[in-house]
Design brief:
The chain has about 300 residues and is mainly alpha-helical. The chain has 14 helices and 3 strands. Helix 2 crosses helix 14, helix 3 crosses helix 14 and helix 8 runs antiparallel to helix 9. The protein binds zinc ion.
Length: about 300
């Protein structure tokens, strides 16, 4: 009897392991969600506020000529296009999905911070190849810089210019989601279950994508207006500086010090109960990351679209 029990226990453990191994790639595939629509809309609304008249005129004209039917063609809606494009054939041919999936994050490992590794050693794009057709194995940091160069260059085709602007609108938001700039062998927090009073339960990643953002308010435009009102001139000046790698490294630092280092001990079921103080500080960090992303997105576009 004892032997039978231990055999069935062993079988059950083996089954669990197989299920876990099956789920692991799925979890990793689910990794690339980033801010939900609300987060990206807040970032774009803030950026629109800080656009110079010339950059604004050019950006709006580029987006007005967008042939895509995945989103409306206003500045704010287009910030969600890259997620829709990635997911448009996710359950079918997966061409868009596999080509662009990894561009939405920069998976810097908490235990071995190496941005170059997270960017697949920065693969070159063959001469004459559009950035949108570049290697699938690349990171959000590289793609922001590459698409910015394309948006700035006068010789870029009109079709590629639309793509470049839409990807920039989205990826600048993505790298400011701290769990899109970090990984702790948990698919960027997707493999950790958390719960908090009033916020229900879900993955740690989803809490940062969505729950903490929704805590700021239900209407993205109202949240953006509130965040803009709170910014000081000194903050705006400071946030406008730096490079894409600096912003990703900063986002990684936030994840390491403010998310992973502050997780409480797991409960007996393995999930983490976030105390109210941690929820409150997380919401403040989300507000600041969205604010920084909006200011920085405007900075990039004001520079890239400076000439009439
Ligand atoms: Zn994304």
């Amino acid at each position: 009897m004892l032997a039978a029990t231990s055999t069935s226990t062993a079988r059950f453990a083996h089954l669990l392991l197989r299920v876990a191994l099956c789920i692991a790639p799925v979890l990793h595939a689910e990794r690339a969600l980033a801010w939900g629509d609300e987060g990206h809309e807040i970032v774009a609304t803030i950026a629109e506020h800080f656009l110079d008249p010339v950059a604004r005129h050019k950006a709006f004209a580029i987006l007005a000529a967008d042939p895509s039917t995945l989103t409306a063609h206003d500045f704010v809606a287009e910030a969600t296009w890259a997620d829709r494009y990635r997911d448009s054939d996710r359950n079918g041919t997966k061409v868009h999905y596999l080509q662009t999936r990894q561009w939405h994050f920069v998976d810097i490992e908490i235990t071995l911070a190496d941005l170059d590794a997270a960017c697949f050693q920065h693969p070159a794009i063959p001469t004459g190849t559009a950035v949108s057709a570049g290697p699938a194995a690349d990171c959000a940091v590289d793609k922001i810089d590459q698409f910015t160069a394309e948006l700035t260059a006068p010789g870029t085709s009109a079709a590629e210019r639309v793509l470049a602007l839409k990807f920039i609108l989205h990826f600048v938001g993505d790298i400011h989601q701290p769990l899109h700039a970090s990984d702790d062998h948990d698919a960027g927090g997707n493999a950790k279950q958390v719960s908090a009073a009033g916020l229900g339960s879900g993955s740690l990643h989803a809490f940062w994508d969505t729950q903490f953002v929704k805590s700021l308010g239900t209407d993205p435009a109202t949240v953006a207006t509130m965040l803009i009102a709170k910014m000081t001139p000194a903050q705006i000046a400071q946030w406008s500086g730096g490079k894409t790698t600096d912003w990703a490294t900063e986002s990684f630092g936030v994840s390491k010090a403010q998310i992973y280092a502050k997780l409480p001990k797991p409960q007996s079921n393995g999930s983490y109960l976030l105390p109210p103080t941690l929820v409150a500080s997380s919401e403040q960090i989300v507000a600041q990351q969205l604010s920084k992303a909006g200011v920085r997105l405007a900075t990039i576009l004001n520079r890239a679209l400076a000439t009439p």
